[in-house]
Amino acid sequence: MKDNSRLVIFDLEVRNLSMNWILGIALFLTCVFLINHFLNKRRQLRENKQITDEWGKPKTAYYYNMHQISRYFENRSEYIKAYQIIEDATCNDLDFDAVFKFMDRTSSKIGQQYFYFFKCSIC
């Protein structure tokens, strides 16, 4: 009878120990989740503020690699099928690169390339 009570007490101690580990791990994972959620929310608010502050304003201190931007236009298959294309002489007369730089409000290189394609051709 005495051995049985020792086993029961030992079994309860093991269960309490394993329950403490489970609760500790659950608490740790909850803390990690909340910290990650807070940091993501703060980053998102910072990015939204930056976008709203820069909305509609021309880009300043930004380097434009016009050769790289125009490559999408030159390599696109619709280039041949386009209804009208602005010719190089017209682009040079209008200083199209400066016009493009003034009108550009994109936030990525791919967006710049597509915007250049959109401005140079009528599909």
List the helices and strands and how they pair.
Elements: H1 2-54, H2 66-75, H3 78-81, E1 84-85, H4 88-94, H5 96-103, H6 109-120, E2 121-122
Antiparallel strand pairs: 1-2
Helix pairs in contact: 2-6
Structure, explained:
By secondary structure, the chain is mainly alpha-helical. It has two domains: about 1-55; about 65-120, no CATH class. The chain has helices spanning about 1-55, 65-75, 80, 90-95, 95-105, 110-120, and strands at about 85, 120. It has a two-stranded antiparallel sheet with strand order 1-2.
Task: Write out key terms for the chains shown.
mainly alpha, single chain, 123 residues, elongated, 2 strands, two-stranded antiparallel sheet, 2 domains
Summarize the structure.
The chain is mostly helical. 76% of the residues lie in helices and 3% in strands.
